[in-house]
Amino acid sequence: MDEERVKRSFQTNVAITCIKIFLIVYNIIFLITGVGILAIGVLLKVYENHYAHLTKDYSSVAQYVFIVVGIVIIIISISACCCTVKSQPVLLYVFSTFLLFIFVVELGLAISAYMFHQKIQKEFKDGMKNMLMSYKGSKTGIDADFDLLQLTIKCCGVHNYTDWFKSSWAGGEKAVPKSCCKNDQECSNRPLINVNQIYQNGCSSIIIGVIKKYANVILGVFGGFALFQLLGTLMSFTLGKIVSRNHYELLT
Known about the structure:
mainly alpha
């Protein structure tokens, strides 16, 4: 009887050690994820003025959500490492519940993004169109942001370069800003003489095209991360249950 109990105790300890190692590695990855989310929130805050005009329904809440979520994940992951090492069942249950909550929230966001993706695309295009129509050709504010966008992505206009012909800045001319030029030293942009000297594809077309192109990769990464979270939830709960049962058996 004692031999069987010792054998069962040894197997339990091996299982606890393996799950502990997994959870420590998991929490380190979770910590890195939290740091990444926090960094995204900080970058969104720093560059807020550059992209806030891209949608009329822009809200600064998003960046603070990233920052808060990042900080919470960092705190939870560090605490989870401690409770994993010390084998605290209650804290492990709390951690598994938190991971399950995060998974449900992410699933809700993914479903919402899929259901409203057409609306999101329309608002994005409308925001860019408003930027284009209010363009004055200055080197500051919204104008500088639009020029930076066109230079960075190598695009011109919203749908294509002809969008600029309808802008108040063009004044009825067939003209585009210098930021549309492939080489601003050898580019006749006002009036536009040779379309081969400029980027002809629209910015929204390129951005949305890239997102669509890599949609499956994005979904795959998101799905893998979600399954990883579920695995972490299961392992945390399992470790908590094993530790609780082990303590009970030692007391009896």
